[in-house]
Amino acid sequence: MNASNAKKSTKTKVEQFMKCDLMQELDFLVARMRSLGSGRANLALKPFDLKVRSYSVLSLACSEVMPTQRDLAELLALDPSQIVPLVDGLETKGLVTRLADPNDRRSKVVVATDAGKKLYGKARKATEQSEQETLNALTPEERTQLRDLLSRVVLGDSA
Amino acid sequence: MNASNAKKSTKTKVEQFMKCDLMQELDFLVARMRSLGSGRANLALKPFDLKVRSYSVLSLACSEVMPTQRDLAELLALDPSQIVPLVDGLETKGLVTRLADPNDRRSKVVVATDAGKKLYGKARKATEQSEQETLNALTPEERTQLRDLLSRVVLGDSA
DNA sequence: AATAAACCATTGACTTTTTCAAGGATTAAA
DNA sequence: TTTAATCCTTGAAAAAGTCAATGGTTTATT
Fold first, then answer.
1. Tens digits of per-residue pLDDT, A80-129?
2. What is the CA radius of gyration of chain A?
3. What value does the CA radius of gyration of chain B take, rounded to a whole number of Å?
4. What is the ipTM of this complex?
5. Does any strand D atom come closer than 7 Å to the Cβ of A121?
6. A122–chain B nearest CA distance, Å
7. Domain boundaries in chain A?
8. B52-111 residues touching A, CB cutoff 8 A
9. What is the CA angle A6-B109-B88, rounded to 5?
10. Which of the listed CATH numbers 3.90.700.10, 1.10.10.10, 3.10.450.50, 3.40.50.720 matches domain A22-126?
């Protein structure tokens, strides 16, 4: 029932690699983290027909920040052209709407509909639980610690 | 010259999004971290004609652990079929060799050649510097702290 | 010992994601 | 007013991810 005894039969060979240099390298750790984490999160979001990507867009569309598509691209570290089909999908399902930016008619602001906000509420709970599972090796304090460190690395580029 | 003043002109709009729920979500943070980090690392590895992926394989091939291709797939969280072209590329350049596993003739052990070890030495310095740049918002203690937390999440699934 | 089942590396087909260049519409700068 | 820059969108091409099937090998079952 627990996620920890997934493959106990094959005697996880991972332990033998603990001493390798690579295990200390950030790129490796983060890549593996993303693979495992987003895999689990996508599974948790499947009932809502969402993935981490579309969920992220929906989440931002639910905020009061009124993000333009360019904002979304920068935040998610994606090419602007990748945002288009992402928003298209959500818009088709009636979860978000493209609004004309009053300040700049080139831009389009992506905002959530009522249905979008409603779905987001449920989906958020799913991702929260998925996150707990992913972090089950850490104490609650360590989890917030990890989030804070990541947040500073990824958002605060000030010096 | 420094990486911190990349886009100071456009007055990073990211700050306005700090209050959004998404900024606390692990999946988002890790995805962004990977995008930024591996982007920088790939750039640093370009002089050696390596990417984070091929570099990781090379690194493991340089260890004394004698990893099979299956081991590589599990560690890097990739499909076994993705390892094939990865090792092919390194083998073509004479950096690694496929050896018959003495214990199991189905498996192939991937080991680095002398040229491979030599290149790895240089490439490793490049990734280390790239890592420092990525983590420049953190103190040295916080950097090891972050690595430790990630390591436990990603490798130690015991409970 | 013989048969069946499981496993490894590889191939191939397929989908998804990423990366780029170019375009029309709009705004900012000269 | 002209020039340059920005935003969204499109489309093409490369890279990465997913999945099923195969030959050779090992393990488990009978």
1. 999 999 999 999 999 999 999 999 999 999 999 999 999 999 999 999 99
2. 19
3. 19
4. 0.90
5. no
6. 14
7. 22-126
8. 52, 56, 59-60, 62-63, 65, 67, 71, 74-78
9. 105
10. 1.10.10.10
- Which residues, 6 or more positions from B143, have their beta carbon under 8 angstroms from its beta carbon? B135
Closest residue of chain B to A8, computed from CA coordinates:
B158
| CA triple A41-A47-A49, angle to 5 deg | 85
Integer Cα distance of B66 and B73 in angstroms: 14
Whether A157 contacts A133, CB under 8 Å: no
Does residue A8 surpass a pLDDT of 60?
A: no
Residue B82 CA to residue B78 CA, distance in Å, equals 6
Local confidence pLDDT in tens for the 159 residues of chain B: 333 333 333 345 666 799 899 999 999 999 999 999 999 999 999 999 999 999 999 999 999 999 999 999 999 999 999 999 999 999 999 999 999 999 999 999 999 999 999 999 999 999 999 999 999 999 999 999 999 999 999 988 543
The answer to whether some atom of strand D lies closer than 7 Å to the beta carbon of B8 is no
What's residue A156's pLDDT?
Answer: 81
- Whether residue A56 and residue B138 make contact (CB cut-off 8 A), yes or no, is no
Tell me, what's the pLDDT at A14? 66
Residues counted in chain B: 159
The tokens of B7 are what?
Answer: 């886009």
For an interface test with A, give the residue of B16, B23, B26 to mutate (most A CBs within 10 A): B26
List all residues of chain B from 110 to 129 with a beta carbon under 8 Å from chain A.
Answer: 124, 127
Contact B14 A74 (CB under 8 A): yes
Query: Could you tell me which CATH number the domain at B32-126 has?
Result: 1.10.10.10
